[in-house]
Amino acid sequence: MNINQNYLNLKDSYLFSLVAKKVNEYKAQHPEKEVIRLGIGDVTRPLVPAVVAAMGTAVLEMGDAATFRGYGEEQGCAFLRQALCGYYAGKGVALADSEVFISDGAKSDLGNILDIFDTDNTVLIPDPVYPVYVDTNMMAGRQIVFVNGNTENNFLPMPDRQVKADIIYLCSPNNPTGAVYSKEQLANWVTYALEQNAVILFDSAYEIFVQDEKLPTSIYQIEGAKKCAIEFCSLSKTAGFTGVRCGYTVVPHDLVRHNTPLNKLWLRRQTTKFNGVPYIVQRGAEAVFSSEGFAQIKENIAYYLHNAQLIADTLRKLDIWFVGGENSPYIWLKCPSGLSSWDFFDHLLTNAGIVGTPGVGFGANGEGFFRLTAFGDRENVQKAMTKLRGLS
Ligand code: PLP
User: Fold this and answer.
1) Domain range holding 261?
2) Of the residues 2, 135, 297, 339, which has the maximum number of CB atoms within 10 A of its CB?
3) Which atom of ligand 1 lies at the shortest distance from residue 108's CA?
4) Dihedral, CA atoms, 180, 184, 187, 188, nearest 10 degrees?
């Protein structure tokens, strides 16, 4: 018996455990001091009433022999896939419901999609990045080429025609940087992917935060993208489903490689290894896209975006370089005075009781940068910003 040796090449995901360890040590040494967490990547606002009501009704249906349901449609309930097609139509993107796959979240799909690609493929990944893209490819032993995000490109790296890639990861609005690609920039990536015959894996988990109508919220708003891109999204951040679990992946029928529609391969993969999302959850997800549910979730998004604006305004006043904070719940700042990510973490915790996330945890290009998030409570954000202003 041999194990998958590639797992031994994975770096320990020490980032959040080290953050927790340092915070616990600080709290033990200074029990009287308040600690405000601006590092959390999880939502804090509860599910909206329309979602709760829809799931409640679904629970009752499941408890009645006349309306009980067992295994559902493997690709996801038609009512939810149709609701999503309606949502995309509102973005100017026409989808067939057979192009939409419901899942238990974007993280699973982003990892599982690799089943349909050869391990010989070269993968292009921006740095800094959501670590799942790197680790899932390392597990399969794929060769990874990084494309650098930095202050010169505002953490929106663009393709280098000299670099050959088969699979390309893009995330916009980005985690961890909060940067958002323009339509022109995404069009450049689509052209590059088509030239290379590559496939873009487009992560739009934070699309709901985009307020600027000129910015794209789906890669399919770019001409040609249906021939080269798979899109992953989730209700985790859109509607507070991080604990409920529901996401979706779009594999267009036009996406064909080696005379094989990738939609067919993904359907085969999912129907073999996945048995669907609970009916109750899918009814809750459907309610997100009702006019009542959507208005309610938009209030939560506005709440988070206002937090982001408070953080961004403070950084502007302090003359600290940052991206994000608009059209995104993330703010990515350059550590002042040339501090390293961890030194700035210690400085903020010790002197202001504020906890953020060291940028170096998201890749080598994150060294010297720091991530703050807008998912906290308003009062805490305000308190933290007052402390931050008092620091300098
Ligand atoms: N993609 C990005 C960029 C994320 O930041 C996250 C979660 O933090 C996910 C995907 C995963 O979301 P889900 O909860 O749907 O698995």
Assistant:
1) 49-290
2) 297
3) 16
4) -90
